[in-house]
Amino acid sequence: MAAPSSDSIPSVNKAWIYSDYGKSTDILKFDPNVPVPEVREDQVLIKVVAASLNPIDYKRMHGLLKAVDDLPIVPGFDVAGVVVKVGSQVKKFKVGDEVYGDINETGTVRPEKFGTLAEYTAASEKVLALKPKNLSFVEAASLPLAIETAYEGLERGELAPGKSVLVLGGAGGVGTHIIQLAKHVFGASKVVATASTAKLDLLRSLGADLAIDYTKENFEDFPEKFDLVYDTVGEAEQGLKVLKEGGKVVTIVGPAPQAIFFFLNSTASTLEKLEPYLESGKVKPLLDPKGQFPFSKTVEAYAYLETSRATGKIVIYPIP
User: Fold this and answer.
1) Which residues are the signal sequence here (predicted)?
2) Do residue 91 and residue 23 come from a single domain?
3) Residue 135: closest CA among 301, 305, 313
4) In this structure, is residue 21 part of a structural domain?
């Protein structure tokens, strides 16, 4: 994909934006005349090809980060696209490079006001990596926040070869990566994951040794105990019941007693570490079968994400 020359970069671009807090269907508006962001010296300007949605987007619209946010906001954390301009201090990238990343380095402390649901976005070079050559822009856009969150949680939970992990919510955007990373990168001896009936085969195909149907059985009744329970659905307290002595519960849903709760700090180093696994196909992006929406249908895409029924990720593509 050819990058436009710097003099052909427009001063305004099409973007989705909100100026008030509330439900995405009520507040998210299409604006064809949003100023293209200025590039700081450590940033690049990206022509956005694809962007993926994450639950943090709509939680932020509901006001989760109100204390640190500054309206109006263009939502979106994940991007895949082409570098069209580089700041004076940038060493890693040049114009024309195909890149991907989660642009919010500290997403809950100082979230970017101008996100990825636009024709252009600016991002610090330290949150971006070169797009693996075997992945499409759509596949690459689906990865950063989810796969980095999966990786950081497994590190915090000290998963290592010979240890076992239970993944609560194995079919979601983060869960599908926890299973793959636990098995293929961290060398877990046993990976068990929960999902609804229709999604059990998917969990097995991703590397789960055992898939538990949460509509039919309670994982708390399971006789086996685990070194790590990774909660993506809000069941951290129940997870304590199946923990080995000295084991850990990690959750990304919210603080829970005796559990490690964290918000991701985005860094390209995780994407760079995982590049060989992505290029070899050992770790794969997972897109929801109905999860590709054009830019004009961004509001519908958020409505689908908010059902919590998506399998894998939802991506916005094409972006004009």
Assistant:
1) none
2) yes
3) 313
4) yes
Q: Give every residue of the chain whose pLDDT is below 70, as ranges.
A: 1-7
Shared-domain flag, residues 116 and 16: yes
Name the nearest CA neighbour of 280 among 183, 76, 135.
135
- Summarised one tens digit per residue, pLDDT across range 6-53 is 668 999 999 999 999 999 999 999 999 999 999 999 999 999 999 999
Query: Taking all residues of the chain, what is their mean pLDDT, rounded to a whole number?
Result: 96
49 within some domain: yes
Question: Can you give the CATH number for the domain in which 22 is found?
Answer: 3.90.180.10
Whether the Cβ atoms of residue 152 and residue 179 lie closer than 8 Å to each other: no
Q: Is 204 in contact with 179 (CB distance < 8 Å)?
A: no
Give the CATH number of the domain where residue 189 resides: 3.40.50.720
Domain boundaries, position 239: 150-261
How many domains, the chain? 2
The reply to whether 25 falls in a domain is: yes
Residue 43 lies in a domain: yes
pLDDT tens for each residue of 164-175:
999 999 999 999
Separation between Cα atoms, residue 178 and residue 169, nearest integer Å: 10
